[in-house]
Amino acid sequence: MRELKMVTESYPHTLPLKDGRVTSNKVHLNFTEFKYAHEAFDDQVENLTYDVCEMAVGTFFQALDFNKPMRLLPVVCLGSFHHGSIWYDPAHGVVTPEDLKGARVAVRAYTQTTGMWCRGALQEQFGITPDDVTWVTTEAPHVAGYVSPPNVIRAPEGTEVKELVASGDCKAIILGPRMAKGTSLKPVIPNVDEAVAVWREKHHAYPINHMITVTDELIEKDPEAVQEVYDMLKKGFEIAKAAGELSPAIRIGEDEVWHTLEVCMDYCLSQKLITRKFSREEIFAPVV
């Protein structure tokens, strides 16, 4: 039996692979647990520590741009509309999208996928381009060698990203819903649901944050193991779907995710996160 090292958070469709509801007589998955999967990204991109690893799609495309030997399994782990993921602290007054021109906005990393989706929406729907804002980050990019645009600056070492908006240093902050929960922050984009509806009507897509990657080495040495992992993930997906536990963002299969990935690549290219778009053959592991 092939032993594989894997990282993914415990979502409704991945938990069955961890708790024994989905098993295999071909592969055994040894999970390394993190509070949040993004804690594994740097290590995976640089060292390929894991055979199978959840990864933000923005990070994946950057890794591909730097010829890192990995590809996607067409399995969405996490996704959401992010019009409501840019926030302001009401203690410092109301902030609207128009107020972001010339302002400083905090974000964990410029390359963070949530930020990529936010900036795309701000540019398309409110005319705020990435160059209109000074982006203040607390983390380096996940892909070594990537050079951020000149309007991206690093906060002093040890700064917590939420401190930047609480102190008034930054007018707004980009945080995923999980990270903003329990705060007094309010969304910069008014009428978020209406803005989402307009975006959805234009793109007919549902933003993806994280998917599953596999290393090229595993694909080359043991393609059957790659197919087996994908089959296990499909079983987990079906279990969660039958239980009504999946959000519309969670999809599986190339055709289900391809259009959204095209939108993602368009945004990444316009925001100087990648230098070109990639083909299906470059992106996906060969599974059925």
Helix-strand blueprint:
Elements: E1 2-7, H1 15-18, E2 27-31, H2 41-47, E3 52-56, H3 57-65, E4 70-79, E5 86-88, E6 104-107, H4 113-126, E7 134-137, E8 152-154, H5 161-166, E9 172-174, H6 177-180, E10 186-187, H7 192-203, E11 208-215, H8 216-221, H9 223-242, H10 254-270, H11 280-283
Parallel strand pairs: 1-2, 1-3, 6-7, 6-9, 7-8
Antiparallel strand pairs: 3-11, 4-11, 5-9, 5-10
| Percent helix range | 25-40%
Unreliable runs: none
Helix-and-strand structural type: alpha/beta
Order of helices and strands: EHEHEHEEEHEEHEHEHEHHHH
Mean pLDDT: 96
Beta-strand share of residues? 15-25%
Radius of gyration: 19 Å
Oligomerization state of this entry? single chain
Would you kindly provide a brief summary of this structure?
This protein is of the alpha/beta class and 288 residues long. It has helices at 15-18, 41-47, 57-65, 113-126, 161-166, 177-180, 192-203, 216-221, 223-242, 254-270, 280-283, and strands at residues 2-7, 27-31, 52-56, 70-79, 86-88, 104-107, 134-137, 152-154, 172-174, 186-187, 208-215.
Q: Could you characterize what this model shows?
A:
This protein is of the alpha/beta class. Helices cover 36% and strands 18% of the residues. The chain has helices spanning 15-18, 41-47, 57-65, 113-126, 161-166, 177-180, 192-203, 216-221, 223-242, 254-270, 280-283; strands at residues 2-7, 27-31, 52-56, 70-79, 86-88, 104-107, 134-137, 152-154, 172-174, 186-187, 208-215. The strands form 2 sheets. The chain has a 6-stranded mixed beta sheet. A 5-stranded mixed beta sheet has the order 2-1-3-11-4, sandwiched between helices. The model has no long low-confidence stretch (mean pLDDT 96).
